[in-house]
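hiii, so i know i said id send this last week but things got crazy w the move. better late than never?? heres the sequnce for the chain we talked about at the cafe, plus the structure i predicted for it. fair warning i was half asleep when i ran it
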Amino acid sequence: MSRDTHPGVQCPHCQSHLALVPVPPGAAPANAVPAGAQGPAPPVVLMKEEWSPPPVAEVLAVYAGRVKDTATAMRGAARVRESLNRARSAAAQRKAAQKAARQTPKSA
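okay and structure toks below
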């Protein structure tokens, strides 16, 4: 759903979109005030979070006018490869250390 057609109710904390869900007559939430206790109770409406990812076109529109910078892309790819290689070698060292710790020395 695009921002133009989505209802404007949002959570004040996380800004996620909310949908108003009417409560059927006779069913009231636990925190509702019974009618007549302090005057007529206002109509009870529960808030339910409704979220779906934005359309791909809307997300990609941010990047539409940008020019591809090959040098920056190559540097970024090299940094990612380097990071992955470091992680792989650290995992291999950790696995070898665990394997060595599990092997008990045989006594003579």
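btw Strands lie at 18-22, 45-49. thought thatd interest u
miss u guys!!
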